[in-house]
Amino acid sequence: MCRGLESLPFTCLERAKELKALFASLLQKSDHSITGHSKKDNKLRLNVDEPLKWKESFEKLLSSQNGLCLFRAFLVSEFSEENIAFYLACEDYRATKSSKLAAKAKKIYDHFISSDAPQEVNLDHATKAITMENMEHPTQSCFNVAQDKIYTLMEKDCYPRFLKSCTYLELSRKAKTG
């Protein structure tokens, strides 16, 4: 079910390591921002208070590119990365052109929902049945019920554990004292 750290995209894993190192350097910095490198614009601008905002809500964590990368790395370490991978696949699916919905829906279903899926997510039988029925005529919302279940699972289970993790506690402590 979980393929470990090698299943995490290299750029995300590297970004998570870079963020941890950058936030760790806060103790030596006196200003309230850090500049690092990113492949997009060659500048990664991090607000020292960013980790503190992630504690405000699960949505704020997911809406932060830095927070999402660290959360994903945390889930890999917890052997539950399939949850965020499925959630993000559903987000990407919603933006898919109508002509490509059926093929992409099948790919998501086969990868995350079917009983022999390589990254099977934990869904109840009723949710799987609804999703299978939705697959007959795929629309951009055919995974909404399953995605909502996984979102709730992460929000109620994984997110609180992330907030108690050594990495997050260290980052938030440094942000408070930064």
Descriptive report:
The chain is built from nine helices and two strands; from the N terminus they run H-E-E-H-H-H-H-H-H-H-H. It is mostly helical and 178 residues long. Strand 1 and strand 2 form a beta hairpin.
**Strand element count:** 2
Largest beta sheet, briefly? 2 strands, antiparallel
Measured by DSSP, the beta-strand proportion falls in under 5%
Q: Report the total helices.
A: 9
Low-confidence stretches: 1-8, 25-44
Tell me the helix content: 55-70%
Strand order of the largest sheet: 1-2
Describe the protein's topology:
Elements: H1 10-24, E1 33-36, E2 44-47, H2 50-54, H3 58-63, H4 65-77, H5 81-94, H6 101-113, H7 125-134, H8 144-163, H9 166-177
Antiparallel strand pairs: 1-2
Properties at a glance:
4% strand, two-stranded antiparallel sheet, mainly alpha, disordered N terminus, 9 helices, elongated, 178 residues, single chain
Q: What's this entry about, in short?
A:
The protein has helices at 10-24, 50-54, 58-63, 65-77, 81-94, 101-113, 125-134, 144-163, 166-177; strands at residues 33-36, 44-47. It is mainly alpha-helical.
